[in-house]
Design goal:
heterotrimer, A alpha/beta (491), B alpha+beta (488), C mainly alpha (96), A: 491 residues, eleven-stranded mixed beta sheet, 38% helix, 12% strand, B: 488 residues, alpha+beta, 3 domains, nine-stranded mixed beta sheet, three-stranded antiparallel beta sheet
Chain lengths: 491, 488, 96
Amino acid sequence: MTDLTDLTVLDALQALRSGQVSSRELTQACLDRISRLEPAIRAFITLTPELALQQADEADRKLAAARRGSANFAPLLGLPLAVKDVLTVKGVRCTCGSRILENFVPPFNATVIERLLAAGVVVLGKTNMDEFAMGSSTENSAYGPTRNPWNLEHVPGGSSGGSAAAVAAHMAPAALGSDTGGSVRQPASYCGISGLKPTYGRFSRYGLVAYGSSLDTVGIFARTVADVAALFPVMAGMDPLDATSMDLPVPDTTLSASADLKGMRIGLPAEYFIDGMQPAVENLVRQAIETLHSLGAEIIPISLPHTEYALPVYYLIAPAEASANLARYDGIRFGFSQQEDEMWAIFRESRGGGFGQEVKRRIMLGTYALSAGYYDAYYGRAQKVRTLIKRDFEKAFESVDAVAAPVAPSSAFRLGEHTDDPIAMYLEDVFTLPANLAGVPGLAFPVGFDGSSMPVGMQLMGRHYREDQLFKIAHAYQQVTDWHRRSPQLA
Amino acid sequence: MTTYDEFEPVIGLEVHAEMQTQSKMFCSCPVLDATTAQANTAVCPVCAGMPGVLPVVNQRAVDYAIRVALALGCTIAPTSIFARKNYFYPDLPKGYQISQYEEPLAQHGLLPIITSEGEGVIRVRRVHLEEDTGKLTHVTGEGGSYSLVDLNRAGVPLLEIVSEPDMHTIEAVRAYAEGLRAILRYLGVNSGDMEKGVIRFEANISLRPRGSQTLGTRVEIKNLNSFRALERSVAYQIERQAETLRRGETVALETVGWNEAEGVTFIQRSKEEAHDYRYFPEPDLPPLVVDEAWVEKARALLPELPQAILRRFQQQYQLSAYDAGLLTAERDLAVYFEAVLAAAPGVSPKQAANWVLGDLFALMNSLGRDISSPPLSPDALAGLLQALSAGQINNSTAKTVLTEMAASGKSARQIIDERGLTQISDASFVSDLVQRVLAENAGEVERYRAGKESLGQWFFGQVMRQAQGKANPQVVREELQRQLDTLK
Amino acid sequence: MTKLSLAEVEHIAQLARLELTAEEKARYSEQLSAILEHAARLQELDTSDIPPTSSVLPTRSVLRPDVARPGLTPDELLSNAPRAEQNQFRVPPILE
């Protein structure tokens, strides 16, 4: 039997159902691997081994009952899962990668967590992230950076770097992240795995600690697109606790074995193939598109003319919303609190001392963009240009079913390479931001390795609520390629 | 020259009214009575502003808001937008309040008022929805002072009603405030219990020289929880601004609080510097859609409103504005009054009004009751008034019977019959009684004839005493006068 | 390029209730100015007839029936509180 931690989600579910493997065995295997690799990778902030084994034992009981025929198999029964520390799991510390929530224990589960637990998952722990999801490298974590399993001197990407690294390092078969400006797709690409940013409104945000409320989505990491698609229907669907979750039927995302993409029209936006991209990235992405073409897809050049404005639009809207979302961290009701004799001093010192540099920078930026006299020029204008970006996509989807593009201008950069230059860091997001601004789904998957053997991914962006089309295309690609079966050499 | 001769006060009112829904504005926590609830027993992650939570709008709160807006004649926006009002304070868990800013639920309404100057109309600029804050209690103990935060009230649905600065007298301010409160009570949206702090006022006052059209600098008075505080603080500000202007100085744009004990306003150092609330549309809530069907349904369910009933009472029953005003102060009272009239045809509305507003109220006060659970039904009171009106009993007997009715639950008829209280109107009986009294009191008769006219009242009292109070006073007076006249 | 002055940075920090060191203020002044410089690009576009996108979702009514449900117990609520007393959050005196 192969190392249990090499099992994909689908293979693991099958093995669990057949009784070939118990959830406890699988969970223990993951926990052992985590112990071995964590000192080098540091993917987790909080490990929950007791909780996990408890849940695994419960899952084993239910698996046995289902095998006896006295119950149904819950869709993900016994599956270990890592959860980005931005989603609340009741009774488990939730830090959001920040000092200001160092000891915060939420008294409620995020809705997606509720649904996954009901489906039988086992929670291994909370993974590392850029503080409050602000960053593209996981170097903004107050708990130290996570390292890329493919090369420990490189970043895993961000802000969901911990979850991406955990999956890439086979610490967990799947993990949850969040994507506000690319924070699932970019780390997926940097770590050579698959990652979904769903349509805004597809997954409930209740329990997802807010950064940019009109942009935030919960995302899924796994080593194959088919695996991602297996978790998708369990998490999707309207939530009465989230007024921004859409009441729409979940499409059938069962994937066929067929790799036929005849009839599928894929757009190639000129604006995403720019100077300054790493040549290897461009080449690998273009090769992947060729492969899609060979499977029958029609490749159509398109234009998304306002792409270049996505960066300034995002870096006005997201910080503005964040500046309000983070106002609740005041040292009064929860979180880090600086002991002071005067109330306003508590506010200022707790926030000043508890927040990291990037967070403070974005709060300042957001506060400014909303402030009296500046609203129209900054936030107001950004929301209007956002409409133009959204319309670019709507227009494109009149003639194509999916838009293909690179995920990042380069493969994973080195730790420390951008930490002194926030703008250089922001430029890492240029290809991923537009999907968040338009609310469209984006699916990232690996398409090769560059000259330094670092993974490169591409993304497909689709119509609102048509994740099924993205799964179909990417799954077809993964049937005729094997990038997704490569794994980093680790102990 | 009085202040009012010299200056015209220009006053606008902002009213915050809690709504009597079962649950809070954006979460399912119960809305509790602040005066009886234990601290922090109606709080959930949402209204506590914990990381990861989201608001969802309470449908009934919107429904109530629509009704109030319709009662005020406002135009309802088919879509309106929630907005974040950003500021920091320990009673504001999220660090922002979800409110409405540029696109509120309703605008352009009005409230008719009646003051000693006649009828007037105060325009309502806007009505919008928002959430209430928690409560801060200041504690002074050994080791200094500090505050405690209770979040029970955080998230309670709040209606904000903003008037145009159309009020120019304290009387108008009071009439507007009372009129609003009456509407809120009539619609069942708010209890109107001022002691519980369910309605709060903020007044904006500026002064201008009489005859001028330019607006002066306004002062805002916040946190007024009673009509008394409202009136007194406004009066104080008017005088204070007048003094400032008379000295040739300008009034400073400021926000003040009211110190009830000392009767002065005091500058409040602002909670939020220069009120930069950095409003932006609430990304967690879609636009609020209120379609025609919803508005029409709400309109159809509106009860007859206080101003309409007041006008009708004046026209239909020829009641004075004063009496009509008192009778329509509470919906229950107006309903009670009309039920009495319906059950007592032949009783004049004026008489019924006097009895309801006078004797019934006095009785209720003594029993510690109110019109929501009256000590006798409208039918019962109607029965009493009919007996009185028909002359079967006199006024003082009727008062006694009223008390007896409340105590025993018996009808007026029963008590009158059982106790033989039917008043005596028989002319010959009265005539004999008067004759006897005059005969027995020859001395007083002499003094009366000599000019002591006030003894007429004494004779009357004697006759009534002999009749054990049951004689018809009108008949007694007439007969007594007739007999006394013949003696002259 | 309009650079944010120290006074402006301090004003924003006060609005956001952030205590910043002198070094942070200087750094943010530089960095925020640079970011806003990039943001100025948005002025190039004609957005006069363009409505803002406050949400990418279609406009639809999302309302909750008015039913009360129990929430947290005071203990649960205060379990994360730095300072609590008499089942309430404790806050030192407020000096404006």
